[in-house]
Amino acid sequence: MATETLTLGKALNIGLRRALENDPKVVIMGEDVGKLGGVFRITDGLQKDFGEQRVIDTPLAESGIIGTAVGLAIRGYRPVCEIQFDGFVYPAYDQIVSQVAKMHYRSRGKLNIPMVIRIPFGGGIGAVEHHSESPEAYFAHTAGLKVVSCASPQDAYVMIQQAIASDDPIVFLEPKRRYWEKGQVDLDAPLAEAYPLQAARVARPGTDATLLAYGPMVRTCLDAATAAAEDGRDLEVIDLRTLSPLDLGAVYESVRRTGRAVVVHEAPSNVGLGAEIAARITEECFYSLESPVLRVTGFDTPYPAARVEEEYLPDLDRVLDAVDRTFGW
Amino acid sequence: MAKGDPGASTRGRRAAPRSRKAVTGDPELVQLLTPAGERIDSVTGPDGTEYRVDFTDEEYRGLYRDLVIVRKLDAEATALQRQGELGLWASLLGQEAAQVGSGRALRAQDMAFPTYREHGVLYCRGIDPIMPLGLFRGVDQGGWDPNEFKFNMYTIVIGAQTLHATGYAMGVTMDGRTGGENGEAVIAYFGDGATSQGDVNESFVWASVFNAPLVFFCQNNQYAISEPLERQTRVPLYRRAAGFGFPGIRVDGNDVLATYAVTRHALDNARNGQGPTLIEAYTYRMGAHTTSDDPTRYRIASEVEAWQAKDPIARMKAFLERAKIADEGFFADVDEQARREAIDLRERVLAMPDPKPVTMFDHVYPNGSPLLDEQRAQFNKYFDSFEGSAH
């Protein structure tokens, strides 16, 4: 098995390269994705190797990126759109929600929009306003869209290719603060045999409580579990991976064993993914629960200025505090 | 206002502020058939292009037939709505020439992106007029394959389809399908109100910088529901194109011949790699925005009467009579055909079954969703719990 140590960003880059190689209908489009290789360099070198018709530097208008990608999809292309930052997706919101999500339904299944919308999301990089947001709930709430998030270089490499190969329109959320984190990536494993895109996975087995996270918070939860182990608490961490639809089978199984669940995300708590997950766990695991499902999230403020984001974002201590509270119930 | 005053503009008939004159005054427009039915042999456009048509008598008669049938089917749909058989109807009354002229200008390989009012274009594409009626009856939301008919599904969000058309046209270029008679071109329909939308302006930018093989066909019917053109623009709409770097031209949208000539020329330019054109088809929405609208609240009868005198069908009939291309027998035959097609449409609308409720769960995703599978199963169980339920 040929594994390489890669950053999450580089794993995405190689995954995109493979997708371009494997299907001539795949096109990448977005702002600065060409010569610059994207502001995070995720598309680095791709225009040079695949040309300006496969890797398209677009005008600076997000609705235009998604709207023209819809037209390309009708024409038979498989557009992979990059939205430069989470906070800039909103001008495209109408096209995503009213067109991308609904075309298949509108056509009674006669038309597919096999589009991937890549969005670097979340905070923790000391950025200015609009560069640190977590808009996943807006998209998870929209029927017709699927929403996934990768948390490791291996998943980044595989999931981006799976998303591009899927006929469903997929919002692909990339944990931007983890772009530079390294991990082992198996570049040769056949895609057909890979772990499914629309499935959660146990990232760390444990017995005492269940931590549920996705994207950037998976690392935070794994660190919390390591710290808890030193105190003699064995926490299970589940990487949800797919946010819409949620894959909660493994979650229910885990919570029935542990009796305690804590959902962790950077997005604000109010009407967020955590609320949906807590409700569904309560419906399915009511008699197994030793405590209410708790949430550790960003606050219901606009994303704050960078010098206080450390206090805004869930971290190891806040996660462990919530775990403590599930035991104190 | 006298009906025999066809050439008159609406200027001065309304208590309009000076600033309105720029857009409501006599439009500089390409016209090959006057409201009185007089043929103008050719018109030279601002860029020196000579616009003319060279139709056989049969083709002239064919255009007239299209106009009459399209209007008749539209009237039938309005009646169906009034009788409760359609939930809504967006009438094209008054815009028949803009739609038939541009629709007939399309070649078989061309792709059209309509709004929700392009019933006439749809008809000219050879598509069964029943196709969009499921949407207006409320039994589906379109339900056709755009690629099968070279006609996208109706788009209700104003202007959104112009971006789809632009992306599709970029794909035509990427596929190497421009150039020559067999080259492909794309047409995007929208209205005067849509020109204020960001998506339309973004599509102008995209089409321009990517030199997309695309014709922007704006039916300026003077109203966005209740808001007159002056609320959307201070300059004639066709002039907007100049700022984006491609030609814009205004055509008499009630003149089927001029509309055909201008659209065919723009489409052929597009298919030959010469990029986009904005056509402003200057016309008038004779009816309401939709059957839910009451235009008497925002416009005066004399304005409607003035446009009545510019009717697209009357002028074509006058021309056919004057040129002795058609006789009373032909006109009676067309009316009879229109009547029969309307009856057929009505009967098929009435026979349209309601969908089974559980079908609402179908086709949300090409690859399905476990969440929906679960909800569908729960719905079936609940539904089945009622006596005599069937789905």
Automatic annotation (TrEMBL), chain A:
<dbReference type="InterPro" id="IPR029061">
    <property type="entry name" value="THDP-binding"/>
</dbReference>
<dbReference type="Pfam" id="PF02780">
    <property type="entry name" value="Transketolase_C"/>
</dbReference>
<dbReference type="InterPro" id="IPR009014">
    <property type="entry name" value="Transketo_C/PFOR_II"/>
</dbReference>
<dbReference type="Pfam" id="PF02779">
    <property type="entry name" value="Transket_pyr"/>
</dbReference>
<dbReference type="InterPro" id="IPR033248">
    <property type="entry name" value="Transketolase_C"/>
</dbReference>
<dbReference type="GO" id="GO:0000287">
    <property type="term" value="F:magnesium ion binding"/>
</dbReference>
<dbReference type="InterPro" id="IPR005475">
    <property type="entry name" value="Transketolase-like_Pyr-bd"/>
</dbReference>
<feature type="domain" description="Transketolase-like pyrimidine-binding">
    <location>
        <begin position="6"/>
        <end position="181"/>
    </location>
</feature>
<keyword id="KW-0786">Thiamine pyrophosphate</keyword>
<protein>
    <submittedName>
        <fullName>2-oxoisovalerate dehydrogenase subunit beta</fullName>
    </submittedName>
</protein>
<keyword id="KW-0560">Oxidoreductase</keyword>
<dbReference type="GO" id="GO:0016491">
    <property type="term" value="F:oxidoreductase activity"/>
</dbReference>
Automatic annotation (TrEMBL), chain B:
<dbReference type="GO" id="GO:0016624">
    <property type="term" value="F:oxidoreductase activity, acting on the aldehyde or oxo group of donors, disulfide as acceptor"/>
</dbReference>
<dbReference type="InterPro" id="IPR001017">
    <property type="entry name" value="DH_E1"/>
</dbReference>
<keyword id="KW-0786">Thiamine pyrophosphate</keyword>
<keyword id="KW-0560">Oxidoreductase</keyword>
<dbReference type="InterPro" id="IPR029061">
    <property type="entry name" value="THDP-binding"/>
</dbReference>
<feature type="region of interest" description="Disordered">
    <location>
        <begin position="1"/>
        <end position="26"/>
    </location>
</feature>
<dbReference type="GO" id="GO:0009083">
    <property type="term" value="P:branched-chain amino acid catabolic process"/>
</dbReference>
<keyword id="KW-0670">Pyruvate</keyword>
<dbReference type="Pfam" id="PF00676">
    <property type="entry name" value="E1_dh"/>
</dbReference>
<dbReference type="InterPro" id="IPR017596">
    <property type="entry name" value="PdhA/BkdA"/>
</dbReference>
<feature type="compositionally biased region" description="Basic residues">
    <location>
        <begin position="11"/>
        <end position="21"/>
    </location>
</feature>
<feature type="domain" description="Dehydrogenase E1 component">
    <location>
        <begin position="67"/>
        <end position="356"/>
    </location>
</feature>
<dbReference type="InterPro" id="IPR050771">
    <property type="entry name" value="Alpha-ketoacid_DH_E1_comp"/>
</dbReference>
<protein>
    <submittedName>
        <fullName>Pyruvate dehydrogenase E1 component subunit alpha</fullName>
    </submittedName>
</protein>
<dbReference type="GO" id="GO:0000287">
    <property type="term" value="F:magnesium ion binding"/>
</dbReference>
